[in-house]
Amino acid sequence: MLNFNVVIIGSGLAGLSTAIKLADDKTVAIISKRSLSESSSQWAQGGIAASVAIEDSTESHVNDTITAGAGLCDETVTRFVAARSTSALKWLTKMGVNFTKQANTSDLHLTKEGGHSHRRIAHVADTTGAAIQSILIEKVKNHPNITIFEDHIAVDLITRDKLDNAQDKDNACLGLYVLENTSGNVITIRADVTVLATGGASKVYLYTTNPDVSTGDGISMAWRSGCRVANMEFVQFHPTCLFHPHEKSFLISEVLRGEGGILKLPNNKPFMHLYDKRGDLAPRDVVARAIDFEMKKRGIECVYLDISHKSKAFILEHFPMIYERCLSLNIDISKDPIPVVPAAHYSCGGVMTDFNAQTDINNLYAIGEVAYTGLHGANRLASNSLLECLVFSDAAVSHILSQYRVHEEILPPWDESRVTDADEEVLITHTWNELRRFMWNYVGIVRTNKRLSRAMHRIHMLRDEVNEFYTNFKISNNLIELRNLLQVAELIVESAISRKESRGLHFSKDFPKTSDKKHITILDPTNFVHGADEKHAIKKEKETAIG
Predict the structure, then answer these.
(1) Cα torsion angle, 375, 376, 377, 382, sign
(2) Per-residue pLDDT tens for 57-76?
(3) What is the radius of gyration, based on Cα positions, of the chain?
(4) What is the dihedral of CA 172, 174, 180, 184, to 10 degrees?
(5) On the CB side of 215, how many CA atoms lie within 13 Å of its CA?
């Protein structure tokens, strides 16, 4: 058994920033399924929303966030995050992140994205996430108190109520089991504090902008351990993923539209003005539905995003990475429009947390896309995600250090005494493909009751098959991810079925109108302890009214 003060599952911005802030005082372990650089943060092209311009304000940032969130954002949480955007940028700058500046000045170059009323996106060209990650990765690799476990996947959390000798009702996370992918061995890690920074679950869909690691591991582990989840039906589909047979998950940043890019049909005609007065700068849910509608109406495979009316010098200055990647596929964006389609991009729901990033279980925190904080509501405003990671990382670290307690429970080793080697791994692959395809077809941008019911039926059948497989055979990375994806899929569908309206990212043909009553969707696991309600900023009753 290994021992650490804090174990962090995930190596995106949420995980790395938390590790760096804790490491001077605590021993920290980082669990990464692949390399440290494999995360959604690494792929983030846009930037970080911050109201630093003279003509901008925190109030404007809050209003834009709530508008994009279709009224479901928690206003107190939104103000909490927006008010800390400047300090978040300062911390990254202190770490060494060199944000793009205005020509011949020291002022930040701020760009504009859909749903924002002002230019407020601080960025590093069009590779903001990669630039931040490279610096933070170097920091964690060189810190003596941080131990890195690459190519390791968390199997499950170990909680007090799972131990045979549990004597009280105060459930707490005590550590976790981790599979070493190279050897197949499962190790036990005891930790006084566990932090979920595992990202979202967009790999539950056939088409996604996310890396392969986005399989909802943290959400599933937390749910199985007794944590509630909220607003799982709100899955953001990014409107503009590159449509190309050799690039199935390359994101074309929203900044491209912020700097003048125009969405067009194959006949070269713009169409977004027909759907929203904001045109190409409408929020992502509006744009994604518009594209989806046009594709289905016209029987076309994609639409086109055109920035070719800008000079090549402008394009190379603002979008060097996008230019080079497209050029490698024989698409010269200074001359040609970019073929694009919507793709699953971001999970607005997740594990319920409070202002300190605490979950329903003691000693367990959740930060970033894995968490439901109340910030994103029914649709995430562009470039608020990295900001959320930084703000709640700060909050979690402050709380962890102020409330730190050592627990010394002896944790049992992983038991493989009654399992054998799997002889039909192909079943996992087939089930994985089937799940992602019917989630795309039945639980995508536009939903119906019939499609949702059919999806839930298939999920239950596959879940039973996979659980039997999990019980009888040695675990593998693919099996763990499939088990987690099925759990997340069930939570998404159950949440979608319960929402009898269309709002934000959830559009139902059976309930096309938006209800006057605003509520969040909360799901309780069977092992949830109701006393945990006191820890949260929002009253956690099902169908809680907001506003």
Answers:
(1) positive
(2) 999 999 999 999 999 999 99
(3) 22
(4) -90
(5) 23
CATH architecture of 238-343: Alpha-Beta Complex (3.90)
**Domain limits of the chain?**
2-233+348-403, 238-343, 426-519
CB-based contacts of 105, cutoff 8 Å, min separation 6 = none
Closest by Cα among 400, 305, 416 to 362:
400
pTM: 0.90
Instruction: Report d(CA 108, CA 100) in Å as an integer.
Output: 6
Q: Which of 84, 284, 436, 447 is catalytic?
A: 284
List, in sequence order, every residue forming a beta bridge with 343; answer none if it has no partner. 238
Which strand (E) or helix (H) includes residue 239?
strand 235-242
Say how far apart CA 216 and CA 202 lie, in whole Å. Answer: 8
Residue 508's contacts (CB-CB under 8 Å, 6 or more residues apart) are 446, 447, 448, 449, 496, 499, 500, 501, 502
In sequence order, what DSSP letters do the residues of 325-375 get, joined into one string?
A: HHHTTT--TTTSPEEEEEEEEEES-EEE--TT-B-SSBTEEE-GGGEE-SS
CATH number of 426-519: 1.20.58.100
pLDDT tens column, 164-221: 655 555 789 999 999 999 999 999 999 999 999 999 999 999 889 888 889 999 999 9
Beta strands in 412-543 (DSSP E): 446-447, 507-508, 519-520, 522-523
Give catalytic status of residue 451 as yes or no.
Answer: no
> d(Cα 388, Cα 17) in Å, to the nearest integer?
12
- Do the domains 238-343 and 426-519 sit in the same CATH topology, yes or no? no
b or e along 391-406 (b: 16 or more beta carbons within 10 Å of the residue's beta carbon)? bbbbbbbebbeeeeee
**Amino acid, single-letter form, for residue 103:** A
Contact predicate 7/364, CB 8 Å: no
Domain 2-233+348-403 listed as CATH 3.50.50.60: yes
